[in-house]
Amino acid sequence: MAVPTDETDSESVASGALGFGRAAPLAGKTKPMIPTRQNSALERAVDAAGEAWALDWSNTLHGEGRSVSGGWPGTLSEARSRVAACVAKRFGVARRVSAEELEMLARRAYAAARKAWLAHADLAVEE
């Protein structure tokens, strides 16, 4: 099975946050490196990247004549890679994320992708 590798333009997939709750703060977490307003933009971009990731998978499966069904096939490792690419594309090389931020954003992208996948997947059990 071919794994989607092309980065879909996340801005064309979604325009805005999906309304996911914020992650619990980490103990001893330092102040974010960028202002809250920009964090919201980053979170929206990551949500859109997650939705684009689900669309990439869906398109790949349809292209192979397969149905979009079952559980979300993505991994957190893939989510980290997509988030890193999203941050670089959207905010440039000057914007660096800490390991903690990357993990939080990767989990957010994964959740957005999984939610989009499950919303469109055929969850009926085939006999």
- How far apart lie the N and C ends? 23 Å
Number of strands: 0
Percent of residues in beta strands? Answer: under 5%
Instruction: Label the overall shape.
Output: elongated
Key traits:
127 residues; single chain; disordered N terminus; mainly alpha; elongated
Topology, element by element:
Blueprint: H1 10-13, H2 36-63, H3 76-91, H4 99-120
Helix pairs in contact: 2-3, 2-4, 3-4
Structure description:
The chain has about 130 residues and is an all-alpha fold. It has a domain at about 35-120. About 55% of the residues lie in helices and about 0% in strands. The protein is built from four helices and no strands. It has helices at about 10-15, 35-65, 75-90, 100-120. Helix 2 crosses helix 4 (about 100-120) and helix 3 crosses helix 4 (about 100-120). The radius of gyration is 15 Å and the shape is elongated. The two termini are about 25 Å apart. Mean pLDDT is about 75; it is low at about 1-35.
Summarize the structure.
By secondary structure, the protein is an all-alpha fold. The chain has a domain at 33-120. The chain contains four helices and no strands.
